[in-house]
Amino acid sequence: MEKIIYPHKEDWSKLQERTFETYEALEKAVRPILRRVQREGDKALRSFVFKYDRVRIKRFQLTPEELAEASNHVSDELKEAINVAKYNIATFHLTQTKAVKKIETTEGVFSWQKNVPIAKVGLYVPSTGDAPLYSHILMMGILANIAGCKEIILCSAANHEGRIHPIILYTAHLLNIKKVYRVGGVQAIAAMAYGTETIPKVDKIFGPSNEYVSTAKQLVSKNDVAIDMPVGPSELCYVADQSTNPVYAAADILAHAEQSSHNQLVVLTNAEEVADKIQAEVDKQLNELPLKKEVAKEVFKNAKIIVFKSNVESIAFANEYAPENLVLAIDNAEAVGDRITNASSIHLGHLTPPAVGYYAAGPNHILPSNGFARSYSGLSVDSFVKKINFQQVTPLGLQNVGSTVATMSEAEELLGRKNSIIKRLELLD
Amino acid sequence: MEKIIYPHKEDWSKLQERTFETYEALEKAVRPILRRVQREGDKALRSFVFKYDRVRIKRFQLTPEELAEASNHVSDELKEAINVAKYNIATFHLTQTKAVKKIETTEGVFSWQKNVPIAKVGLYVPSTGDAPLYSHILMMGILANIAGCKEIILCSAANHEGRIHPIILYTAHLLNIKKVYRVGGVQAIAAMAYGTETIPKVDKIFGPSNEYVSTAKQLVSKNDVAIDMPVGPSELCYVADQSTNPVYAAADILAHAEQSSHNQLVVLTNAEEVADKIQAEVDKQLNELPLKKEVAKEVFKNAKIIVFKSNVESIAFANEYAPENLVLAIDNAEAVGDRITNASSIHLGHLTPPAVGYYAAGPNHILPSNGFARSYSGLSVDSFVKKINFQQVTPLGLQNVGSTVATMSEAEELLGRKNSIIKRLELLD
């Protein structure tokens, strides 16, 4: 981690920059894959899966038996843990849905809003090596179930033997996801956006992803399908001071760093000695623990540990940075948390490692990054519904609101609208 | 309008296609404008405004005096109408916000969600000729005020004399929008996305638009700023049967057709005689009324009136078409409305012309189109906030949920996360 001491305010925006590939290069790589899948369907899918995943897939879709059978390969301990997480995630998200009940804005003018599930949703589950990232399925599938989506499909890359990890299949089965396909990467996004002979076109695509898949999602979202949000590499912004336990801090930092070599990391503190203690403890744990060391070291190349003159400055910096995950590992975390205006998810105090929020606290872990915490929210049940507006006018209502509408449409020089009121009022009289 | 009788099910998707320019051509036109504004700021803005709007603008921003003074040029009748609309729109949207209160998902594990206003929002108000489309400002500005956005800026093209219509300025002033800029089109989107010397960069851009501005919004949304939704040309899907009054139907259809030559129009009915009556009445009103006839005729070139065998078929077609605006001009409209799964806004019955919903019923009129009603919602207060997740764990909470998190992270082969739990539990004991 690069240590930076008392940066000038005018250098902050430079320090807040994320480091990754430019968009144009990614688009150039992604476009031809999208086009070919759109044109050639399953044939193109097979060819890209062979090229990128080095496996020949004959049958993309798993059978109901394969999904059900996966349960035999998952330990009872993990099943129990998944159940706890599922309960907490469902409890949190069940409080989210809200429709607008029928209201009468003017006498005789009724309006309301109805939540209608998005019919067909596609969940993308990335694979990192052979690790089954099944927790993403919980974060998407539980919400799709709460919303009531009719068709939930899931795409994930198979390994060299054409196998999807049983924990992925078990979790999908647990959440009643019946259509699971052995395809990952850009080609999976293309398949869900355009549809192929075997994979249905969906209305909205969800899921975290690397830069290529993210680019693919953004490209297909222009015209063909909705996407959840622009998800980039994961981010951790860690605020520490003299009250922070360096052992906890180092553990949280390493947990973030080993997760993906693209991950972004910024540690903010109010004293150089705190920075040095954390750095020393990071080095120590990195050597002692069974971590993905090469991945973590890659993250540390671009990571920064910044010393400010006060916690107030750290917080001001964090608000400008707008991180995906913000840890306030300080004494008065809840009060400080109230002053955060830009962050996707905040982990408060000394005993709230991001890992708890990530798996089991209840809130969602699929969150905007790359500065989009300024304007986007994390996944919610609302991400799986659309809200339909209704309006209904009675004869009295039309008499009450008619002149308002006529006057307003005339001012916009749209006399047809005024006429649609007048024609009715004439016949009502 | 082209009349189509009893189309085969397999031809429906063809009939549901929208007609407009392809994306690639639009991007080619839009990209250079975005790039130049990003590089050259105000200088580029000035040059594009001169090129496209034929006016030389020295000072983009209006003064507080200019905004306040506009009130003198708006009639009391219109002010009163705007007030009624403002009250109804606010009443409807005030019921929309909801945060997740603090809940305890596992004993000692607390989580909640807070609505935080998006700090800087940019509202785009298109101009059609000299008509002041001020109702869009109500639909965006009232929501931004309810959400509590700190900085609200507004961009709209000036006319040949460098003037923005006083009704636009009056409405902005009424909603406490202090920063109004004389710039429209793609260059306005670029200015709000990247910032220039005089126009601040915003976090999210809102507003209806033509295809060029829509394309610009989608392009800048990749990396630089959020946007409200992919808004395309306005759409009307009109369901009529023997109970429909052809005079009302024709008035509504003409109101939609004269609004913009890009507008999409589909009339669905269960009997050819109904189709013919409506067509005859459209022709009659088109000749009698003071409408924008050339605009309407352009819309009718691509419009369709489709005869099905029953209302049930009409409704099935409407659900597949997923229109922006759906009128159910039939007797049992509310019951039928309950069976709609894809539409942005539904106008129920014989006395609910879309004009009422458009201006004054309460619901928003900035709505997804081009089939995105399948997956997007119209503007809501949530469009102007982001939801921050919070989690906080007590010592008891960590003991309760610790093993769940440890087990789950181990299964994802992320031992750093497990370690962040263990290090804490060790020290707690």
Describe this structure in words.
Chains A, B: Its EC number is 1.1.1.23. Chains A, B: Its cofactor is Zn(2+). Chains A, B: Keywords: Metal-binding, NAD, Oxidoreductase, Zinc. Chains A, B: It comes from Microscilla marina ATCC 23134. Chains A, B: One of its GO terms (molecular function) is metal ion binding. Two copies of one chain form a homodimer. With 429 residues, chain A is α/β, with parallel strands linked by helices. The first copy, chain A, has three domains: 2-18 and 233-362, Nitrogenase molybdenum iron protein domain (Rossmann fold), CATH 3.40.50; 23-101 and 116-227, Rossmann fold (3-Layer(aba) Sandwich); 394-428, no CATH class. In chain A, 45% of the residues lie in helices and 17% in strands. Chain A is built from 17 helices and 14 strands. A six-stranded parallel β-sheet of chain A has the order 1-11-10-9-12-13, sandwiched between helices. In chain A, helix 2 (23-40) crosses helix 9 (211-220), helix 8 runs parallel beside helix 9 (211-220) and helix 10 (246-257) packs across helix 11. The longest helix of chain A is centred in the first third of the chain and has 19 residues, at 76-94. The first copy, chain A, is globular and about 85 Å long. The relative contact order of chain A is 0.15. At the A-B interface, helix 5, strand 2, strand 3, helix 10 and helix 14 of A face helix 5, strand 2, strand 3, helix 10 and helix 14 of B.
